[in-house]
Each structure stands twice: as C-alpha cells, then as structure tokens.
Specification:
It is an enzyme of class 2 (transferase). The protein is built from 13 helices and 15 strands. With 414 residues, it is an alpha/beta fold.
C-alpha cells in the first residue's frame, strides 16, 4: 500500500512539474501583479523579460475630440514570431542604471532574456514588451496634464529627432505628447501610435532650445512638471532628450508594410534576387551635395578615405559582403569606391524608402547628417560613422558632445 501511495505521489509531482513548465502558465505568471509599487523599474525587475515584434497593434488613445489623429495603420500581418534570423539576440547582461519617467525615478538592476523576433524582411527586433506597455500607459492622454508640442517643417532626419524628443520629454515631465501636422506626417512611413493633433490647443509657454547639435538644454531637460500647454522649438539632436525612451521608440519607429513593400520592389527591379540572397548586405549612405556648400557651419563631408577604411573593416569582419549604396553621389562613389567591393546603387529613391533599405541591411556605414544618424540607430547590426563631424571650432560644434550624439556601440573612423 505504501508503495502505491509513493508511486501515486511521484506521478502527481511529475505531472505538476511538467504543467508549470508550459509556456501558457509562464505567460500567466509573468503578468500577475507582483508588487504594489507604482515604479515601472521595480515592477520590471520582478516580471519575466519578454519581447514582441515592435509592430504589434498599439491601443488607440481614449480620446475622441477634434485633436485626435486618425487613419493610422497598425497592421501587424507581415510578421512571423516563430522565426529567427541574423542579428544580435540572446541574453542581455545584468545592468544597473537610473531612469526617470515623469514622476518615476528608480535604480533598476535586471536580467532579461531577449527572444529574437524576425519580420518577413529579415530584420531582427528586440523590444521588451513589459517595459513598452508601461511606457505606453504613461503616455496615454490625460486631460489633467499639460500638453507638450514639438515640431517644425523639416526633413526626415530632423523630424525623427523631434519625435524622439517629444516622446522622451513627455515621459520625463509627465505630459501628453501632441503632434503637429509635420510630425504627424511620420505616420505615413512609420507605425507611430495615434495621438492628438495640436489643432485647437492654446500655447501657454514657449521655449527655444538654446544649444546646438550634440548638446542638451538644461531648462528643457529640467522643466518643472506643469499643467500648461508647452511648445518647444529646436532641433533636439542629442540623446539626452530621449534617454530611457528607447524601447517605446523602437516599438513605434517600425516601417509601415506599404513602405517595406515599395522599397523591396524597387530593389528587386534594380537588382533582381539580391535582397533575398544570403550575402551579407552592408548599407552605405553618401551625403555630399548640399554639405559641400555648408562647410562654413562646420558640416564636414565624409571623405573617400573614410569610406575605404569602413568598407575594408566590414570586409575583414564579415564574409560574402555586398554594398548597397544610396545618396546623392553615384558618379563620385563609382569612381572612388568601386574597386573596394561589389557596389549596388539605389538611385533617386524616396527618403523613407532609402532609410528602410539601409536600416534593414545587416550592417551599415553612415555619412554625416541626421538622416544617416537615424539609419544607424534603426539598423540592428554594426554601425560605422565618420567621427570628424561636426568640425571643431565652427558654429555647429559649439555645444557638441560626441558621447551625447553618437551611441557608444558605434565604431568611429576617419
């Protein structure tokens, strides 16, 4: 009898052990309330690290007045969460950092397991779902809070810096991020979340950024929490403005399916079979043109020697490399760089399609300027940049701090 009881107990134990190992139970456990604190960093440290494809549907803001942006497409049908591919993935090492989001401020020390998620275009995306959900909740429209507005009529690279600053500063100062019409145009290219427009908002306070590229303005960074409607004007080309908001930015700055489809179709037309091949694709962005006439500001143009060194570095690190080149200097690139590797040009492309193609390459060599900066930031491989931009001693470099402009994992060359 005792033997029967022992065997029965052992069987029940094994069944229970198998049961709690199932993904279903893990997922339920991971989303159970684990602490009563309102601090997202503390909550995150006690919840299983999860990832999602950043293009998943974001919930619409609970507002229906005339300021609501409409018609945004959050289609997530082009993703296959069961596949993996090339890219950085695995375990994120334990880290300790202090982050501030609105009223939240805490030092977190977490170890999160990151799962690689692959879109049909082959890009790797690593986004912590729990953190994104917390930040999205913090950005939900709240009529008791002040509204924050940033946005001037600029080109794609500058608009992205302004969008990033809007999200980062809204989190920092516990305000509602509000789009201008120019910022809302980003919804044509990216899966940014639906948020109110500034049509009927009366501005109570206006602040101009008092620094140039690569620097942050203390009066904006340290803006006191307010219920006023605040408009910020500037370029905001500094990572200080969106430090701590990277997860939600990667979640929203995923290209729309129609942009991906159009860019890949153009690539297939110009170079049939190349995009889907197994070669290592190195994106190169070349900007000369307008920058050649702006040297007096300190806008340096990356020289031939930089591109040659960068290409040689990529060839030494990776096998079967091809170089996909966009920009405004095809003749120059053909004459100067064609002997260093197989060049495939994408001519006269739309800026957002070029940005997608370059950011979706395995690795990228960027030039100077904000367009190239965002190509590097959106790319999930290794990034090489020209480190003599802007030119020291010129107006553009007056407030420049390389550590606040270039991400630390990028490779500098000149």
């Amino acid at each position: 009898m005792k033997a029967v009881v022992v065997l029965l107990g052992l069987a029940l134990f094994l069944i229970f052990a198998l049961f709690i190992q199932s993904e279903f139970i893990k997922d339920i456990i991971s989303f159970l309330p684990v602490t009563s604190t309102s601090d997202p960093s503390v909550r995150l440290s006690k919840v299983r690290g999860t990832t999602r494809n950043a293009g998943t549907n974001a919930h619409a803001d609970p507002i229906s007045h005339s300021n609501t942006a409409s018609g945004l497409n959050f289609d997530s049908s082009n993703k296959d969460p069961n596949q993996t591919g090339r890219g950085r993935h695995g375990t994120i090492s334990p880290s300790s950092s202090t982050k501030t989001f609105g009223q939240f401020s805490a030092t977190e020390s977490t170890t999160m397991t990151s799962e690689a998620v692959k879109e049909k275009d082959g890009r790797m995306v690593e986004v912590n779902e729990t953190l994104v959900a917390i930040l999205e909740k913090e950005l939900d429209f709240d009529s008791s809070r002040g509204n924050l507005i940033i946005g001037l009529r600029m080109r794609l690279g500058n608009l992205l810096f302004q969008f990033a600053a809007l999200i980062g500063l809204a989190l920092r100062h516990h305000m509602n991020p509000v789009y201008t019409k120019s910022l809302h145009k980003l919804a044509l290219y990216f899966r940014i979340k639906e948020r109110p427009l500034d049509n009927n908002i009366t501005i109570s306070m206006q602040l101009n950024e008092g620094v140039k590229m690569g620097g942050s303005d203390a009066k904006i960074i340290n803006l006191k929490q307010t219920k006023e409607n605040v408009e910020l004007k500037g370029y905001f080309q500094c990572t200080d403005y969106f430090s701590g908001a990277e997860a939600i930015l990667r979640s929203e700055l995923m290209f729309r399916p129609d942009v991906i489809k159009a860019a890949q179709a153009k690539m297939d037309h110009l170079h049939p079979g190349l995009w889907k091949s197994n070669v290592t694709k190195i994106g190169i962005h070349i900007r000369r043109g307008d920058f050649l006439n702006l040297a007096y500001q300190g806008r340096t143009v990356a020289p031939t020697e930089y591109y040659k060194k960068a290409m040689q570095l990529m060839l030494s690190r990776h096998d079967d490399c091809v170089f996909i080149v966009t920009g405004n200097a095809k003749t120059w690139a053909t004459e100067e760089l064609s002997t260093f590797g197989s060049l495939f040009f994408v001519d006269n492309g739309l800026p957002h399609e070029d940005m997608y193609l370059l950011s979706a390459c395995d690795h990228v060599i960027v030039s100077t300027g904000t367009f190239s900066w965002w190509v590097g930031w959106l790319n999930r491989g290794s990034v090489v940049y020209y480190d003599l931009y802007p030119k020291i001693g010129y107006p553009l470099a007056a407030d420049f701090d390389a550590k606040k402009y270039y991400p630390p994992h990028w490779t500098p060359l000149h």
